[in-house]
Amino acid sequence: MKGPLFYSKILLFGEYGIIKDSKGLAIPYNFYNGALKTEDAETAEAKKSNENLARFATYLKDLDASLVTFDMDTLNADVAAGMHFDSSIPQGYGVGSSGALVAAIYDKYALDKITVLENLTREKLLRLKAIFGAMESFFHGKSSGLDPLNSYLSLPILINSQDNIEPAGIPSQKEGKGAVFLLDSGIVGETAPMVNIFMESMKQEGFRAMLKDQFVKHTDACVEDFLKGDVKSLFGNVKQLSKVVLNNFKPMIPAQFHKLWKQGIESNDYYLKLCGSGGGGYMLGFTEDIDKAQAALKDYKLEVVYNF
């Protein structure tokens, strides 16, 4: 048995801000994917994944039945037969490894599931997001449900606010020098501790004001510029966003990257931002000239995900 593939995702804009109703934009990233399978169940990785799935199945059994129910008999039998999630998606890298797993489990075992083929009204999208949020909370403590939603639909998703989401058409890629890229920090990030730091910071009035007046403002502008294809305005707003993050989200940026982050802002060769919760994993980079960015970041591994 090998199930359908579910892809990783990249939240281009909106990390942390979407908790406070900023706009957000998530896109599928097909470079990484995962699928449920029962063959090759003897490797150490497969065994670890299988044990994780057994715990996840126990958790799913107790979810609110008015929200979602599963064919638990089949799920438990498949787990007993060695089923695991065979995935190339790096864990702790901010590209949605648990999201793809949640999407795969929902797709295969949910009863009365909402399928990707039906007319996806806003109501259905919000219901899916609520289901996925409840499922993914097993991994993160608190989840918006966006990563699994993106993985399940394999469509770009525009978040207008927490209760207003829609599939988005993004401008098709061009063969220009401008690019969005992933920068590998070489460190695995843990989502829960980063979210806890953020929630603690939210208790301070100054931090809340900064989030609303600066972070959310620039994030919203970035989303609008990106969707309109206004590249010139986009880079101005991404630069401002990069500054705000460096000044206010230092704990989420691995210490050895503070200098690199600042260099990008000062040289205008590239601008860095968080990819997911930070603390490690990937960082997202935006550049108007990918050659310049690669020269400036020659000691690091870059993966281009979108061209302007």
Task: Please provide a written account of the structure.
The chain has two domains: 162 residues, 2-Layer Sandwich (Ribosomal Protein S5, domain 2), CATH 3.30.230; 129 residues, Alpha-Beta Plaits, CATH 3.30.70. It contains ten helices and nine strands. It is globular. Keywords: ATP-binding, Kinase, Nucleotide-binding, Transferase.
Measured on Cα atoms, how large is the radius of gyration? 19 Å
Kindly estimate the percentage of residues that lie in beta strands according to DSSP. 15-25%
Kindly report how far apart the N and C termini lie.
40 Å
Task: Give the CATH topology of the largest domain.
Answer: Ribosomal Protein S5, domain 2
Q: Tell me the CATH architecture of the largest domain.
A: 2-Layer Sandwich
Q: Give the rounded overall mean pLDDT.
A: 93
Helical residue percent?
Answer: 40-55%
Q: N-to-C SSE series?
A: EEHHEHHHEEEHHHHEEHE
Count of distinct strands: 9
Task: Provide the low-confidence segments as ranges.
Answer: none
> Given the C-alpha coordinates, what overall shape results?
globular
Please give the domain count. 2
Structural class: alpha+beta
CATH class of the largest domain: Alpha Beta
The biggest beta sheet reads:
5 strands, antiparallel
